[in-house]
């Protein structure tokens, strides 16, 4: 075989190398292809949440020019919806797309990276986790499980949930069987309710059959698609229990360490992009869906009385105090969270709080 | 030359190709190196703003494994601080990092993609531009200039600015010489003030020498570093004129079109990352800086009286009506903006507005 013909046969990459452009070709390690699996807690392709996972995978593929391909699985397709963290920990799959408060049985501190009743909103969670030291703590909490967390989305301030009876006083929570995860669920339990955890895909049937009396999910855009208005009379606001719920993207440590630095940077940037995209998606579509719920489906929109919120807030404080008194990691995380919350809360007095009044001037 | 030795000499890329992995090697076009220049409006490496440009360049370099290298220039280093858009339009440089309201002399519609008095906050601007159709309009506005816009940062709700005399009634604006750009400047002019535009690096000297009586800039984190407390007595809130100022990253059309798709995707994701990073940086650091201004530098913090804000809001409406009556593109953009603002404003009544009251429960 003659040299010229051999070079031609090697194709473009080799030709470039042979013509003195070798230094411009990325090293072979960077050219390796990675085919990863990402399991999620959401029904397949569920708008905003499942869609966020799909887009994350698409963006990683585009940025890496197909070197890192992430195949996304809906909840239950590969592992159960709430089996995501286990699958990533065990290395069965490389990635997960879920919400941290589901893993409270493994490490209670996880909840502070997801949703804290009367805690931070999306802007605050982003600033705390990404710029205020939260990510370092989150990594510390997940390290024993060989999982690396990334912040991959946010719901914004959620709706208060769907009820078949009115909440007029704190006593109306007594005996209420409500689907509500995380710290919010513990608060409902303290108020005498029965908090249960059901994955997204099973909520409607449970509510419709009366297995549960009430449920929270996300906000109008989502809740309309989930059809909850067919099974509940009242839609309550505000979502005191989840003022800025973070969606997490998790990566198994072994998988993460196997990636070259450029692909690690691509995965991180895709998570940032997913994060801002998802919040924008909810923001852009919630009001239109709310109007459909009100005007077309005749849903009755109700506000939690401030007197009830006041009691729920005091219960939230008690719930958190109980957790941090038993778990040193939760204590460490919550102290950092609370300091940050007080800090941005003070600044908000001069800014975001005023902004919300501009429309009434 | 024997085949084996020849393969070895070709280096790793070629070896991979020769051993049947040719399809795994990215095409030669994707391996080309791009060395780009990005000019900015900010003093070099200015925290948050200049730093945001520096980090954007770093992230692009990391993700592209050095295939796209962006060299960042501070305002005045290569072109004047307010010459950024011209330089990108003319193709003198490939990228710019600035704020859209500076280009009002070229196309008045640009202002709606930056800061609208009593308009949208950061969360709203992100949702409108990235998820609510705003980006398509922004691209349309910049297309005649051969510039592609990307959303690359946000200040959050700004502070109201630095004054040497108190603002007690709307009449206190009469004759006031204030550094304030964009639509906010036009509102101040309507109130009888004299709005001037001075680039960041020149404001302190102007204020200190009495060339201007007042200035707005960003918020405590930045304003502390700019040293304005040495030249002004009062620090006013809230920043009615800039409730969520967007920082833009611009790319010349020719430069953009020359990039392979993977590098385009990397540039877009780096802009998303910069956007969320910058807002988080301001959020995480504003309150600490505010406390230094109050406690160490004895700055007097003052609130604009609601009666003054009410008049300023009516002036803002007039200012915008005058612009849209003369410029069809501004009309098209503002109508979309206003529809979105009303939409998220309605949803905020049930959510973000309530969130701001949680701390008082």
Can you characterise this structure?
Two copies of one chain form a homodimer. Chain A is of the alpha/beta class and 361 residues long. Chain A has a domain at 32-155 and 244-283: Bacterial extracellular solute-binding protein, family 7 (D-Maltodextrin-Binding Protein, domain 2, 3-Layer(aba) Sandwich), CATH 3.40.190.170. Chain A is built from 15 helices and eleven strands. In chain A, strands 7-6-8-5-9-11 form a six-stranded mixed sheet. In chain A, strands 2-1-3-10-4 form a five-stranded mixed sheet, sandwiched between helices. Chain A is globular and about 60 Å long. In chain A, 57% of the residues are buried. At the A-B interface, helix 1, helix 2, helix 3, helix 4 and helix 6 of A face helix 1, helix 2, helix 3, helix 4 and helix 6 of B.
Quick structural summary:
Helices cover about 50% and strands about 15% of the residues of chain A. Chain A is α/β, with parallel strands linked by helices and about 350 residues long.
């Amino acid at each position: 075989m003659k040299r010229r013909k051999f070079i031609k046969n090697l194709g473009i990459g080799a030709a470039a190398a042979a013509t003195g452009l070798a230094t411009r070709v990325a090293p072979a390690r960077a050219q390796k292809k990675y085919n990863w699996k990402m399991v999620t807690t959401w029904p397949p392709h569920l708008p905003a949440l499942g869609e966020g996972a799909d887009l994350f995978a698409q963006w990683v593929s585009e940025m890496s020019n197909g070197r890192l391909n992430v195949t996304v699985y809906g909840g239950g397709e590969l592992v159960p919806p709430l089996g995501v963290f286990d699958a990533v920990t065990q290395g069965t799959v490389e990635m997960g797309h879920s919400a941290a408060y589901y893993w409270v049985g493994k490490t209670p501190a996880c909840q502070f990276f997801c949703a804290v009743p009367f805690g931070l909103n999306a802007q605050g969670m982003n600033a705390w986790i990404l710029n205020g030291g939260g990510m370092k703590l989150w990594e510390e909490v997940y390290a024993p499980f060989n999982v690396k967390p990334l912040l991959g989305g946010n719901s914004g301030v959620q709706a208060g949930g769907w009820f078949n009876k009115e909440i007029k006083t704190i006593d109306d929570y007594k005996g209420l069987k409500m689907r509500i995860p995380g710290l919010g669920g513990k608060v409902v339990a303290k108020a005498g309710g029965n908090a249960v955890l059901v994955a997204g895909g099973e909520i409607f049937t449970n509510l419709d059959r009366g297995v549960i009396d009430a449920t929270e999910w996300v906000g109008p855009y989502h809740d309309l698609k989930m059809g909850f208005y067919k099974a509940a009379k009242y839609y309550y606001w505000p979502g005191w229990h989840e003022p800025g719920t973070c969606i997490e993207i998790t990566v198994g440590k072994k998988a993460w360490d196997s990636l070259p630095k450029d692909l690690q940077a691509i995965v991180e940037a895709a998570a940032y992009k997913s994060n801002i995209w998802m919040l924008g998606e909810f923001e852009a579509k919630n009001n239109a869906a709310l109007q459909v719920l009100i005007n077309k489906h005749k849903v009755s929109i109700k506000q939690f009385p401030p007197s009830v919120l006041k009691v729920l807030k005091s219960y939230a404080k008690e719930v958190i105090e109980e957790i941090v008194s038993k778990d040193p990691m939760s204590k460490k995380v919550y102290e950092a969270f609370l300091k940050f919350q007080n800090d941005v809360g003070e600044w908000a007095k001069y800014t975001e709080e005023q902004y919300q009044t501009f429309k009434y001037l």
